[in-house]
Amino acid sequence: MPDLKQLEQEISKIKERNAKVEADKAWETSLSRKALIAILTYFVIVLFFYFAALPKPFINAIVPTLGFVLSTLSVPVFKKVWIKYWYKK
Fold first, then answer.
1. Structural domain tally of the chain?
2. What is the crossing angle of helices 62-85 and 31-51, to 10°?
3. 52-88 tens-digit pLDDT
């Protein structure tokens, strides 16, 4: 049977893990993360368009970037529906 010190250590580890999980969740849902993804996506598409010699890469990269951002913003909605109607424990 674990003694009091061992139980305190286990509780401390659980609290540390919970704090990390909460921080990860906060990052996953943050506006900063979404903005960073949009910016990085835009620059990757600009580079691709530039090296593919497509016209106006800085302007034309906006459309696929917006499409990507909109698709990622809609994912939480579909996740809730999926959990409600299809997820079985």
1. 1
2. 130
3. 999 999 999 999 999 988 888 888 888 888 888 988 7
pTM, full prediction: 0.70
Q: Residue 64 burial by CB count (10 A; 0-12/13-18/19+): exposed, middle or buried?
A: middle
Domain containing 18: what range?
4-85
Would you state the structure tokens that stand for residue 22, as one six-digit string?
């909460």
- Cα dihedral 72/20/84/67 (nearest 10): 0
Write down the number of H helices and E strands in the chain.
4, 0
pLDDT per position as a tens digit, 14-58: 999 999 999 999 998 888 998 999 999 999 999 999 999 999 999
| DSSP assignment letter at 84 | H
